[in-house]
Amino acid sequence: MNAWCALGFLWLAFFCHGALSCPALCKCYSRRAEVVCNEVPLTEYPSEGLPKNTTMLTIQFTNITSITEEHLKATPLLQGLHLYSNHLQHLSSNLLRGVQHLDTLDLTGNKLTELPADVFSHALLRSLVLKNNLIEKTDADWLLDNSSLTWLDLSGNHLRKFPTALLQKMPHLENLDLSNNRLETISANSLQPLAKLERLNLQDNKLDSLDASMLQSTRNLTHLFLSRNKLSKIPQNLFQELSQVRILSLDDNQLSHIPPGSLDQLSSLDEEGLDLSANPWLCDGKVEYLWRWIQKNKKKIFLPETIICASPESLSSRSVMSLTGSELNLQS
Ligand SMILES: *[C@@H]1O[C@H](CO)[C@@H](O)[C@H](O)[C@H]1NC(C)=O
Ligand SMILES: *[C@@H]1O[C@H](CO)[C@@H](O)[C@H](O)[C@H]1NC(C)=O
Ligand SMILES: *[C@@H]1O[C@H](CO)[C@@H](O)[C@H](O)[C@H]1NC(C)=O
Ligand SMILES: *[C@@H]1O[C@H](CO)[C@@H](O)[C@H](O)[C@H]1NC(C)=O
């Protein structure tokens, strides 16, 4: 409440609840219907005083701990809600019932652990960012069927189980980021409903194997990130349907071989689009496929000289690319 309003003149009442209204500690930009509360000592969501026509609201670096359906009802035209780096621990069920036009919800950097049923139902959300929270498990009942989401970011949480049931509700998803979690396995048909998926980020998890049919339905994938897992094998047909892939990262895993033929479908790779570095390649006779593929596709590999033999001892530290035909034959 600003000083003008405190005067309490009747003729000012209009301004206090209309054009000039703005929550204490926040900045209101009325022409673009935007409100920003940045790094201020708020401990509660500032419903009071928010202009009713607010479409864009940013509350960041404050101490608010919860948000409810009632809070959001104050701004029924809201389209973008950015709640970066607060102390949010609780979101109410049916949170979005009063903000049906909400398109983007960003909850990055809070302290969310569990979320209630229908927390993201009701609005036609396209982008949901839950990055860097403390979420251990996802639930299919967060959303209704046929969710409009095209962008889901759950990176930097504590997920151990792949969110298979939740993803069944997202046939329109184009971008899925699950990097930096604790995922160990992905069941064969987890990605089956995601025919529109273009980017899949699974790096920095604990995946040690992948099912051969896992990527069968995601034919529009252009970016696939699998760096820094524990993969020791790639199924031969894993990339079979991925003719659109431009970037594929497999670096920092435990790969010793690539099955013959497994890279053949990757005809759309960008220059330097494939990263195979920091794996313990076994340079026996079975490395021949990789060796030939590198000779033919050198430009498509990111730092090809960093694809290095870990064994046998006689070739250790040599780059696969530098091996001669006779060295390969000698080892076979
Ligand atoms: C929002 O409402 C305020 C006050 O009623 C008005 O001054 C402002 O122009 C409106 N903004 C938009 C973008 O409609
Ligand atoms: C949040 O609370 C902590 C202590 O409770 C305080 O030190 C900090 O300044 C507060 N942050 C803001 C932005 O008010
Ligand atoms: C699913 O949602 C899309 C848009 O979000 C809509 O066009 C389509 O009709 C819906 N399908 C069903 C079966 O409800
Ligand atoms: C895949 O991409 C193509 C070209 O961008 C597009 O026409 C097609 O509809 C996409 N397929 C799906 C299932 O979204």
TrEMBL record:
Keywords: Leucine-rich repeat, Repeat, Signal. Transmembrane segments: none annotated. Residues 1-21 form the signal peptide. SMART domains: LRR_BAC, LRR_TYP. It comes from the Eukaryota. This is Leucine-rich alpha-2-glycoprotein-like. It comes from Seriola lalandi dorsalis.
